[in-house]
Amino acid sequence: GQSLEQPSEVTAVEGAIVQINCTYQTSGFYGLSWYQQHDGGAPTFLSYNALDGLEETGRFSSFLSRSDSYGYLLLQELQMKDSASYFCAVRDRDSWGKLQFGAGTQVVVTP
Amino acid sequence: DTEVTQTPKHLVMGMTNKKSLKCEQHMGHRAMYWYKQKAKKPPELMFVYSYEKLSINESVPSRFSPECPNSSLLNLHLHALQPEDSALYLCASSQDPGAGYGYTFGSGTRLTVV
Fold first, then answer.
1. Which of A59, B21, B35, B63 could form a disulfide with B43 if both were Cys (CB 3.0 to 4.6 A apart)?
2. Does B66 touch chain A if contact means CB atoms closer than 8 Å?
3. What SS3 state is found at A81?
4. Taking Cα atoms as reference points, which of B54, B110, B64 lies closest to residue B87?
5. pLDDT (tens digit, 9 = 90+) per residue, A80-108?
6. Which residues lie below 8 Å from residue B33, measured CB to CB, with a gap of 6+?
7. In chain A, which stretches have pLDDT less than 70?
8. B43 contacts in A (CB within 8 Å)?
9. Which of B101, B104, B110 best probes binding to A when mutated, by most A CB atoms within 10 angstroms?
């Protein structure tokens, strides 16, 4: 089975940096991905880490440590439009085709 | 075309009605998915289609019946639903059925069962 833990809510001001942590337990880890979802909108794929290290995509970066079963999403230069829910998700090696989502982190950006 | 299109966007149905949700993608993706999402909760997997064949059914009640007429289309047929089935139903697709990343989601159908 799989389980993921991430904080329920993070609040920060415009221009700040936010780090959303995700710890996971799986029987055979395959990869960690991140999705953003605005209220009333569709989840949007942000990034994917299969190997240890940092992946950078513009203002967003994602990190993975397989030995610690831990990853994070880093949001830099926060903008109001970054207010959304952010989900980490894992695909377990033994769960082909199944993407398991964490409970989600609500990011609130204030002026 | 880099989108997944879902229709209708909103649906209200009675418990004795039969309705269908539709999903379409033209990205050549070989896997398509149905997810159910309740408010303030993560998406929950319902069905996975890989190369137009049903590969995963997450023990979904038979009142939900998926169908994949071709590689671009995915339907979810609804019959005799319960009020607790009210939710946002999301369709998604991915290039690689087993990759677990790079899913493209539609905007969903917001279903209300009365």
1. B35
2. no
3. helix
4. B110
5. 999 999 999 998 777 777 888 999 999 99
6. B45, B46, B47, B48, B49, B91, B92, B93, B94, B103
7. 1
8. 43, 87, 101
9. B101
